[in-house]
Amino acid sequence: MASKRAFTSILSRSLRNPISNHPLSTPPLYKSLSPRPSPQARYPLLHPQRRWDSTSASPPKAYTFDEIKHLISNPSPSRILIDVREPHELHSTGRIPTAYNLPIASSPDALFLPAADFEDKFDFAKPSADTEVVFYCKAGVRSRTAARMAKMAGWEKVGEYGAVGWSGWGRGGGRDGG
C-alpha cells in the first residue's frame, strides 16, 4: 500500500508544471480576459458623484448705466453699491459715488465673515441678508464672481453692474465719487 501511495504522490508531482506553481508566474489567460472593475467601482469614495441643480438661485440682476445713476441719486439703506476692485485701482482711477470698497480678489472670504470681523476689515457694516447688494468692477469679471459668492453666502437680492463696470461709468459720463 505504501508503495502505491508513494507512486501516486510522485506521479501527481511530476505532472504539475513547475513554472505555474511559482509565485511570480503569470496568471492564466482566462483571468486576464475577465473584465476588471473601473477605479470608480473599486474606490467609490475617491470618485464622488456630483449632481448639479439647475433650478437653484436666480442670476443676479444686470444694472444699466441709468439705473446706477438713479441708485446713487436716491440712496437707500436697503440697496448698496459695492466696488470689488483693489484699493490701488480706486486711488488711480476713482470710484462711483456712494460705493463701498470690498476687494474680492485679495479677500475672497469677505462675504462669509461674521459681521464684526467684516466691519473691522472693510470699515463699513456688513449688509444684512435682505439688503440688495450691487457689485461692479472694472470690466465685469470680478463683479460676476462677487455676485455668485453673495448668492452662496445667503443674499437673495444681488445685482451687478458688470457688463461695462467702471469703464462704462466713465464712458457714460459718470462722475468720480472720490
Automatic annotation (TrEMBL):
Gene Ontology terms: cellular component: mitochondrion
Cross-referenced InterPro entries: Rhodanese-like_dom, Rhodanese-like_dom_sf
Taxonomy, superkingdom: Eukaryota
Annotated stretches, region: Disordered: 16-58
PROSITE patterns from the UniProt entry: RHODANESE_3
Matching SUPFAM superfamilies: Rhodanese/Cell cycle control phosphatase
Gene Ontology MF terms: thiosulfate-cyanide sulfurtransferase activity
Residues covered by the Rhodanese domain: 75-178
The protein, known as: Rhodanese domain-containing protein
